[in-house]
Amino acid sequence: MKVKETSLSEAEKKKLLKLLTYEKVRGKPIYYRGYEKVLKGELPPEAVMGSSELQAIIISLILKYLFKNLPKDFIPLTNELGFMLSPQNFRSLDIAIYKKDEVSTPSDKYTKKPPIVVIEIDTKADLSKYGSFEEYMYEKTNDLLNGGVQKVIWFITKVKKVLIAEKGKDWITTDWNKAIEVVEGVSLNLEKLLKDEGIKL
Questions:
Q1: pTM of the entire predicted model
Q2: C-alpha 45 chain-centroid distance
Q3: Radius of gyration (Cα) for the chain, nearest Å?
Q4: CA–CA separation, 137 vs 155, rounded Å?
Q5: How many CB atoms lie under 10 A from the CB of residue 70?
Q6: What is the pLDDT of residue 118?
Q7: Core-most of 71, 79, 167, 170, by most CB within 10 Å?
Q8: Residues 16 and 99 in one domain
Q9: Which residues in 145-179 are b (16+ Cβ under 10 Å) and which e?
Q10: 50 or 119: whose pLDDT is higher?
Q11: Which pLDDT band, with edges at 50, 70 and 90, does 54 fall under?
């Protein structure tokens, strides 16, 4: 879908901006990175809403590992799960780990149930209103922990670092060649997962 900005009515623009909303924080939308090019007709919405090849590979490898190694009463959910923190606040989650009984009767709307663990790989958000990626990452992490998530793990591809945040504990930043505990008894080493699949970064 290619459109020119001048050809959009206010109603059409509002509808498109709703589609391009990645998250909402305290009533203010955070759009997908590159959304302005969609409004100008330079790109279709799918071009900015999709994951990069690198993000997709990392998420796939982590999910493959989790499905194999998590205890049977846990389940990882993906596909940018929408997590409603309040009526004017929602966040998109790359991977959200739940106990199976918590999602045994799934809704067709964004969930209000906090995951036990959230795993994020970079972001697709437009960060023009933030001073840095770190500012966005820390804000989102705080929102998730305050919303009931027990642990938030960020894999940051450009610097090959991992942030591990738990409520009431010091946040830890380490290299992604270290084993990171996801839940008790289950740790993953992203560098090893990549190497085992023959992927070089």
A1: 0.89
A2: 18
A3: 18
A4: 11
A5: 18
A6: 97
A7: 167
A8: no
A9: bebebebbbbbbeeeeebbbbeeeeeeeeeebeee
A10: 119
A11: confident
